Amino acid sequence: MRIAQISPLYEAVPPLLYGGTERVVAYLTDALVDAGHDVTLFASADTRTRATLAPMRDQAIRLDPAPLKSDLAAHMTLLYDVRRRAHEFDMLHFHVDLLHYPFFEDCAGKTVTTLHGRLDLKDLPQAYRRWPQFPLVSISDRQRGPLGNVNWVGTIHHGIPSDLLHYSPTPAGGYLAFLGRISPEKRVDRAIIIARRAGIPLRIAAKIDAVDRAYFESDIAPLLDGEGVEFIGEISDDQKGQFLGDALALLFPVDWPEPFGLVMIEAMACGTPVVAWNCGSVPEVIEPGVTGCIVESVQQAVDALPAVLALDRRAIRERFEHRFSARVMAASYVDTYQQLLQQDDALQRLIA
């Protein structure tokens, strides 16, 4: 199958540091190539991929040092090039929300759009209902809630390569881990309280966006005073495996409708259990008593830690391989592509 993967341009594919959507695009693209498909990836030039790269910008937007830049202009150029080459592909897979809709109305049947973000925003329902012909894939069933009557064609959970993060049978670090982004909805403050009440050291590997810098300085930095909590900043993929593998458990104390939560399956790939809040996708990802636990308060998290730390790390790794490998994700997308193309062929025959 000839497949175009259309990525956002904010990060390289995969991101050099923190990043979610472009990371998943990278894993999916390479898994599709490994499965024998002819894949072209539209992304920034600093991308690393086994597919054919169509470079759309000299550098991903976020780490570009240019003081003035236009993400809108960059993505309009991206869509122009995809539109110009659309006839070369059997399937166009978009990861840019609904930005492409006005330009691809005449070939919506050979597209699929994966929505990677939160959907409880005021203007989204009206916009998605305006273009009902575009097939949508959610990354969790919970993500769909705010957009009920749209053209959902499936839920496909994220996956990562099985060989990306290695299984760690014995955590060497003796600490709890927080990995992600410093922001109010990620609730690193909860992680700090949990670790201190449990008497276990906490290591925080997190990105701080400019918009969250004031929140970090006012709400989080004061909590870092004292022993037992170490803030190490943003880490790369090369550092992630050891960081998660050496951890006793990952704390995922989110306070927002998390669409998926890639870090949960990254921890599981290392055999590391997860203590997660009952928000968004969490009940679809974590299997209580197998890969971690789901809690609704700080005290529940503290009380659950002894049982969580006793979980079988080999079993956690096996559940990751069964449910959340990139191979499993790619196979699900191929099934979706084939179903959509069959429906589109039938519709075209009917029209003819």
What does this structure look like?
With 352 residues, this protein is α/β, with parallel strands linked by helices. The chain has two domains: 187 residues, Glycogen Phosphorylase B (Rossmann fold, 3-Layer(aba) Sandwich), CATH 3.40.50; 149 residues, Rossmann fold (3-Layer(aba) Sandwich), CATH 3.40.50. It has eleven helices and 13 strands. The strands form two sheets. The protein has a seven-stranded parallel beta sheet. Strand 5, helix 3 and strand 6 form a beta-alpha-beta unit. Helix 1 packs across helix 11 and helix 4 crosses helix 9. The longest helix is centred in the last third of the chain and has 26 residues. It is globular. 44% of the residues are buried. The mean pLDDT is 94.
Which sheet architecture does the biggest sheet show?
7 strands, parallel
Q: Based on the structure given, which CATH architecture of the largest domain is correct?
A: 3-Layer(aba) Sandwich
CATH class of the largest domain: Alpha Beta
How would you spell out the order of helices and strands? EHEEHEEHEEEHEHEHEHEHEHHH
Shape: globular
CATH third-level topology of the largest domain: Rossmann fold
Strand order of the largest sheet: 3-2-1-4-5-6-7
CATH superfamily of the largest domain: Glycogen Phosphorylase B
Let me know the number of strands: 13
Structural class: alpha/beta
Helical content band: 25-40%
Stretches where pLDDT is under 50 for at least 5 consecutive residues are none
How big a fraction of the residues is strand? 15-25%
What is the end-to-end distance? 24 Å
How many domains would you count in the coordinates? 2
Q: How many helix segments? A: 11
InterPro entries: Glyco_trans_1, Glyco_trans_4-like_N
Protein name: Glycosyltransferase involved in cell wall biosynthesis
Organism: Lysobacter niastensis
Pfam families: Glyco_transf_4, Glycos_transf_1
